[in-house]
Amino acid sequence: MGKKIRIDDVDYDLDNLSDKANASVIYLEFITTRLQELKNMKALLKRARNSYIASLKKEIISDKAGLLFDDD
User: Fold this and answer.
1) How far is CA 42 from CA 26, 36, 47, in A?
2) pLDDT digit of tens for each residue in the chain (72 aa)?
Protein backbone atom coordinates (compact mmCIF):
# COMPACT_ATOMS: atom_id res chain seq x y z
CA MET A 1 0.00 0.00 0.00
CA GLY A 2 1.48 3.30 -1.10
CA LYS A 3 1.32 6.82 0.18
CA LYS A 4 -2.08 8.49 0.18
CA ILE A 5 -3.39 12.01 0.21
CA ARG A 6 -6.76 13.11 1.56
CA ILE A 7 -8.71 15.78 -0.31
CA ASP A 8 -12.28 16.66 0.67
CA ASP A 9 -12.55 13.56 2.88
CA VAL A 10 -11.51 11.25 0.03
CA ASP A 11 -8.23 9.28 0.13
CA TYR A 12 -6.23 9.02 -3.09
CA ASP A 13 -3.37 6.57 -3.63
CA LEU A 14 -0.42 8.51 -5.04
CA ASP A 15 0.68 5.49 -7.06
CA ASN A 16 -2.53 5.76 -9.09
CA LEU A 17 -2.16 9.47 -9.89
CA SER A 18 -0.63 10.92 -13.05
CA ASP A 19 2.83 12.47 -13.03
CA LYS A 20 1.23 15.91 -13.22
CA ALA A 21 -1.00 15.14 -10.22
CA ASN A 22 2.00 13.81 -8.26
CA ALA A 23 3.91 17.00 -9.07
CA SER A 24 0.96 18.98 -7.71
CA VAL A 25 1.07 16.89 -4.52
CA ILE A 26 4.75 17.75 -4.09
CA TYR A 27 3.98 21.45 -4.54
CA LEU A 28 1.08 21.17 -2.12
CA GLU A 29 3.31 19.55 0.52
CA PHE A 30 5.91 22.28 0.02
CA ILE A 31 3.32 25.03 0.33
CA THR A 32 1.76 23.44 3.42
CA THR A 33 5.17 23.19 5.09
CA ARG A 34 6.05 26.76 4.14
CA LEU A 35 2.73 28.07 5.50
CA GLN A 36 3.43 26.36 8.83
CA GLU A 37 6.93 27.86 8.91
CA LEU A 38 5.48 31.31 8.26
CA LYS A 39 2.83 30.80 10.93
CA ASN A 40 5.59 29.89 13.39
CA MET A 41 7.63 32.92 12.32
CA LYS A 42 4.61 35.17 12.79
CA ALA A 43 4.16 33.89 16.34
CA LEU A 44 7.84 34.42 17.07
CA LEU A 45 7.79 37.95 15.67
CA LYS A 46 4.64 38.82 17.63
CA ARG A 47 6.36 37.64 20.80
CA ALA A 48 9.45 39.73 20.02
CA ARG A 49 7.25 42.73 19.21
CA ASN A 50 5.42 42.43 22.51
CA SER A 51 8.73 42.20 24.34
CA TYR A 52 9.99 45.37 22.66
CA ILE A 53 6.75 47.17 23.48
CA ALA A 54 7.02 46.12 27.14
CA SER A 55 10.63 47.28 27.22
CA LEU A 56 9.70 50.60 25.63
CA LYS A 57 6.86 51.14 28.12
CA LYS A 58 9.23 50.43 30.99
CA GLU A 59 11.75 52.91 29.58
CA ILE A 60 9.10 55.62 29.12
CA ILE A 61 7.79 55.14 32.66
CA SER A 62 11.34 55.16 34.00
CA ASP A 63 12.09 58.46 32.25
CA LYS A 64 8.85 60.11 33.41
CA ALA A 65 9.18 58.94 36.98
CA GLY A 66 12.89 59.58 37.22
CA LEU A 67 13.33 56.07 38.52
CA LEU A 68 15.59 53.35 37.22
CA PHE A 69 13.93 49.97 36.73
CA ASP A 70 16.18 46.95 36.39
CA ASP A 71 15.46 44.01 34.10
CA ASP A 72 16.04 41.61 37.01
Assistant:
1) 24, 10, 9
2) 688 999 999 999 999 999 999 999 999 999 999 999 999 999 999 999 999 999 999 888 887 777 666 655
